[in-house]
Amino acid sequence: MINIAVCGANGKMGQEVIKAVQGAEDMTLVARIDINNGQFATIKDAKDSVNIDILVDFTQPQSIYENALYCLNNGINMVIGTTGLTDSQICELENLSKNTNTGCLIAPNFSTGAVLMMKFAQIAAKYFNNAEIIELHHNQKKDAPSGTAVKTAAMMAEVNENFASGNCTETETIKGARGANSYNNIHIHSVRMPGFMASQEVILGSNGQTLKIRHDSTDRECYMPGVLLAIRYVNEHKNFVYGLDNIL
After folding, report:
1. What pTM value is reported for the model?
2. CATH class as words, domain 2-106+220-246
């Protein structure tokens, strides 16, 4: 059995992960970690009390980096679903994972549909020199843009050097109107509004045509097969992985 601790256990994603782990025949939930009325208030408290094979983190952007540093420095394998890590932080966690021989899988999105959407966008990006991303989430999401949007842009930038080909010189009369200019001039627009859970649309264009690739999540249950897949992968391989697409 794989001993699982869930950090952010009382959050919406944390609760879904707990249900999924409890329903898995090869996993045992050994710790619910949450600063708000959790079984344990900190990862250290849990580590001192139970044997943890893998910690699944769905907490907050402001705490995930420190959580990851603690786990990797203390031999706790991780599956990270919390977004908000910077490129430099991800690079440092990759090096730390390798140096400590501790597994770490970071996935901006655990939905297989979203992973396919990102991959399709990367394939299409080779054939379009203009592209923008619109991501839409509920108004309780604290980081922007979403990790999924950032990962999508990074994947697209691997196959094309400039996504603003032919654009005129622009002037924003209201700052931010054109969104955030990310990798290789892919503009990302973040929408935060009640009624959404998680959606993303990639728009690619060239003279005379546009292509739209969209994914919508309507229930957090859609992420759980990916979470369980990530847990099993980390338990077996103990290496560093960024993106669920790398283990599908």
Report:
1. 0.82
2. alpha beta
